[in-house]
Structures are given as C-alpha cells and as structure tokens.
Amino acid sequence: MKIVSSLSLILAVAVMTGCRNESQQTSTATETPAATQTTASAPSATPYDLQFLDTMSRHHEGAIQMAKAAQGKVQLPGLKEMTKRTPEEQQKEIDQMKAWREQWYPGAAPAETAQMPGMGSSMNMDMSHLDSMNGGKAYDSMFIDMMIPHHQGAIQMAQDALAKAEHPEVKVLAQQIIDKQQKEIDQMKLWKSKLGS
Predict the structure, then answer these.
(1) Structural domain containing residue 88
(2) In a 10 Å sphere around its CB, with 0-12 CB exposed, 13-18 middle and 19+ buried, how is residue 159 labelled?
C-alpha cells in the first residue's frame, strides 16, 4: 500500500512538473515572437509625414536626374516634352515639401527611409546602360521601361500617404501625384506600343 501511495505521489509530482514546464515553454514560445514582432513593427519615433516629405523629395530628385539625362537623346515628340516638363514640375513639388518640412518640423534630422512603399525597387535601377546610349528608338523604349516603374513607385508611396498622412496638405499632394503620374504612365505605355517593342 505504501508502495502504491509512493508511486502515486511520484506520478502526481511528475505530472505537475511537466505541466508547469509545458506552461512555461508555451508562455515563452508565445511571448518571444510577440516581443520580437512588437520591436519589428513598432512605429518609428519619426512622424510619418516627415518621412514621406523627405522620401518623396528624394524620389522626385531621381526622376529629375533621369529626365535631364534623357534630354537631347529621346526622339518621340511627346517624350521630349515630358523630359523637359518633369524637372520643373517635380522641383516645384520638392520646394513645396521642403517648405512644409521647415514649417512643421524645423531642424528635424533627415528622415528618408527605404522602407516606405514604392521606394525600394523604383530607386535601385541601373542607368549605366541607358547613359551609354546615344539616343534613338531603342533609347526611347528603354527610357520608358525605366520611367514607368519609377512612376509606379511614386504612386505606391502616395497611396500609402493617403491612408497614413496626418496633414491634409500631404494627402492633397499625394492624390495629385497619383493622378498625374498614372496619366503619364498610361501615355508612356501608348508610346511604347507605337515603338513596337
């Protein structure tokens, strides 16, 4: 009888210990990813609007560089006009964003981020081959192939701002960017089809 009682006691302790260990493991397993997730997805201390202003300004600067490099090389009349118009239009928007930045976040550190939607792929394009070309139909086609994804990146970023921006001025600008750049994408696709490539 004593042996049975002892065995029962040992089994009870073992079961309790096992349950406690399992509970601790489950707790650890659920807490660790949650803590990691919180750290990974925690909002930055930098205001979203500031990140948008700096990142979109940098994105616009990329379009200005592309357009200026294409001037004198593109042949399609409409594409020529676009490469002349783009630097002026995008610089105007950059100036506006810089003015808001100074007004809303005076003295703030640079807040450009590659994590913003549309920034990664549209800013990592290799233009060396395009720069080495002298112009012509092949140049026009390649320029369009590079400018369309760049525009699409700006649209993705602007769509993100429509949902997240705090200042209504930023949302208005974001919608303008979406409307304007989608129109240019549609036009470039038409030009591309006419080039037959």
Answers:
(1) 48-195
(2) middle
